[in-house]
Please model this.
Amino acid sequence: MEELARLAGITVRTLRFYRERKLIPPPRREGRIAWYDDHHLARLRTISALLERGHTLNGIAELAEAFDHGRGVGDLLGMDVPTEEIPVRLTPEELADHYAGEVTPENLAAAMELGYLGIDGEEVVHISRRLLDVSSALVREGIPLADILTAGRHVREHADALAELFTDLILRHAPEDDVQRLRPLARSVMEAELSLALDRRMRKAP
Model:
């Protein structure tokens, strides 16, 4: 415990307090000896970084619980179908920086439920660099992350329907392998139609 506290830059008393608050998982025990590892050290450094960013201990405790029970990265990325999206690995404090105080247990749970986030040890994995960049940009524009995630749920429903329409169209006239080859055409149609839809919406705006 003394060695762990020294490496983390905190006092043994603080470490005991964190352990009592269940901010870190219990050590592995062999008889009377308690063993801590790099996982504990990474968690303590994350706690210090989040405290420096203005998070409260209660908030950190809720986040720690959400991370400990979060969806694993294997579930998030365990797919055989090739993807055009680039996953991004983040520390919890980097995730907090992206969303400027909007990383609450509720938002974290919603993002995990949607399949945007997975947990890999002390790291967070976002399934898409593009979605990460767009959502964090919207937060910087003043839009609450909770509203962005709600919108994302609706977008997912429409996107699934469009993907099904495109796949069915291709499979009626071509081999299954062509679905992957022709997916850029589907993306172009969706981008063009969305652009035109935004044009129509802007013309109607007061």
Remarks:
- Residues 1-52 form a domain with the Multidrug-efflux Transporter Regulator; Chain: A; Domain 2 fold (CATH 1.10.1660.10).
- DSSP finds eleven helices and five strands in the chain.
